[in-house]
Amino acid sequence: MGHGAHGDDEWVSLFEHGGGGPHADGGRGRAVRVRAVVNARADRRAVPPADRTAAAFHAALDGFSPTPLRELGDLAAELGLSRVALKDESARLGLPAFKVLGASWAIERALRPGVHTLVAASAGNHGRAVAHEAARRGLAARIHLPARSSPARRAAIAAEGAELVVADGPYELAVARAAADGARAGHLEIADVGDSDPARWVIDGYATLFGELPDTLDLLLVPAGVGSLAAAAARHGAATATRVVAVEPASAACVGASLAAGRPVAVDTPGTSMAGLDCAQVSPAAWPSLRAGVHGAIAVSDAETRAAMRELSARGFGIGDCGAAALAALRALSIDAACAQLRDAVELDASSRVGLIATEGPTDPEAYAAVLAAPV
Description:
The chain contains 14 helices and 12 strands. By secondary structure, the chain is of the alpha/beta class.
């Protein structure tokens, strides 16, 4: 576990030291200043295999095409790396994020006669994807959102024809309420967190994204909320000998906390501009792949992510907060002394070929414009 002082208190992570018995505070990690975690338990032989069945289904959907891999040659030269490439998920099947890959496949697998309404909990992108797919299939959708979901993301989901239910609390409360709602007759919950079949099929759906990558990358930096995308990355990494590092907000670093503890632990989530990563605990469906297949985790601050958004915009790429986090993490991994142990663990050096998974475009256009316009 790498430690080090930092001038921005925004990334005081909630990783837990060690990890033994239960916490007196209900299992939540205590605040510790940690930038990076090395997963000493990583063992690709123990990673569940990737199920790539969804790729053919996705390829048959109207408007499907692989998303581009953007070469960032000048960045690679600046950081002393062989290659940096950005997987640009800002336009995927008519939506500005990768989430539709998981939602569409989970719906395809889970849908049964008599279902008229799809239900989901979301901070934004997953709910929009479920609503989009429900409309495509002629179904209703009801999306449960946390209290701090942004007006722009709520409006985008509503524009897909969904009914919105805003919880008076955090994402985890929205998850609980969606589960109860989805258990009603004629309703079907399409969860991307938990231990349900749909939560597992969501991970399988994300395999399509990683199947589009070349096998020549050595390292992937992957934004992680509850860990479903990172789990898919871990399965891809195990099959291709690619190392995987999870990227999280410093204020919602549940994957790093869990890797450090060797078991799932919850963290406090005081809030972050990386709305899709604002999660207190990992998904049980994702955890076995994370535990065995993710080599470590890096915490980044909102300020670092905003800087990465501006940098990517200057390069001509419109990438939102969660997607830009991968670039912020690469800069930290490359130069921050607090990342030295993780840097060594993933063997980052002049020969490294690095992939950044830019998970979303500007899903809150007004907030994105404000970031670009802010004085630096």
